[in-house]
From TrEMBL:
InterPro entries for the chain: RNA_cap_Gua-N2-MeTrfase, SAM-dependent_MTases_sf
Protein's UniProt name: Trimethylguanosine synthase
Organism: Volvox carteri f. nagariensis
Example of a GO MF term: RNA cap trimethylguanosine synthase activity
Source organism, top-level taxon: Eukaryota
Length: 251
């Protein structure tokens, strides 16, 4: 943390919105000075390092087998880097070619490039049939504007994603592993409880960094062993129909 007079000085040099993130640079990346790369969206969307490390180790704890992990929307690599600390193989999927290159570069700053693979793709094209031990995602929340609405509606399409959180969870829970989703702090937990399939085992953590509530992390896994039938399939028809209705009426 900067002392108040230095912070005030930085604010005179940079636009207010940029100064806020610059002052947090070491909490985003402790190795920031080793030429970490970020673009504008990367600055405001990266998960703070201490939180990314916690999300990685909590996912690992919940995994039966911790070999392959994936970040579905890896941005500039904040979560991928920390996942590589606890998983031997981490795949980062990212739709922006520029951010894929930044994530790759940043993984080498943290000496974990050898454990990371990057795929420039739309996660929804990668998702069908995906099997990984742990799947993390911090989907786009719609930029800093998400803070100005009372509740973050899980049925509403995520900005720039064209899919709701409901749809995203529906796709990801098929991966059979642990799914962790970092979501806005104003996510409607009652809605969330309603969209997580009944049989799934799940927990929600409030994530504080420097005493500030940064968001919530939902951890979820299908709650069945591989030899058990996928009870979810039976529930899917009704659940999907309801989801589709809610999504279109919200839009
Ligand atoms: C909140 S950021 C992720 C930040 C990342 N967890 C980190 O700590 O650096 C969300 C990212 O999702 C990417 N994204 C958006 N739509 C996507 C899609 N359909 N498939 C994959 N990535 C996507 C955005 O380009 C953005 O970089």
């Amino acid at each position: 943390m900067l002392d108040p007079s230095t912070a005030a000085y930085v604010r005179t040099l940079l636009p207010r919105s940029a100064a806020k993130y610059w002052m947090q640079r070491y909490s985003l990346f402790s190795r920031f000075d080793n030429f970490v790369q970020l673009d504008t969206e990367g600055w405001w969307s990266v998960t703070p390092e201490v939180l990314a490390a916690h999300q990685a180790s909590r996912s690992r704890e919940l995994c039966a087998r911790g070999l392959v992990a994936m970040d579905a929307c890896c941005g500039c690599g904040g979560n991928v880097i920390q996942m590589a600390g606890v998983f031997p193989v981490v795949i980062g999927v990212e739709i922006s070619p520029k951010r894929v290159e930044m994530a790759r570069h940043n993984s080498s700053v943290y000496d974990v490039a050898h454990k990371c693979q990057f795929l420039c793709a739309d996660f929804f094209k990668v998702a069908p049939g995906l099997k990984v031990d742990a799947l993390f995602m911090s989907p786009p929340w719609g930029g800093p504007k998400y803070q100005h609405v009372n509740t973050f509606d899980v049925f509403y399409p995520l900005v720039g994603f064209n899919k709701s959180l409901l749809r995203l969870l529906d796709v990801t829970l098929d991966c059979d592993g642990v799914v962790a989703a970092f979501l806005p702090r104003n996510t409607d937990l009652v809605q969330l409880a309603a969209v997580v399939p009944e049989h799934a085992v799940w927990e929600v953590e409030r994530a504080y960094v420097n005493n500030k509530l940064k968001g919530i992390t939902l951890y979820c896994h299908p709650g069945r062993t591989p030899d058990q039938p996928n009870v979810r399939l039976e529930a899917d028809a009704e659940y999907m129909a309801q989801g589709a209705h809610m999504e279109s009426s919200a839009g």
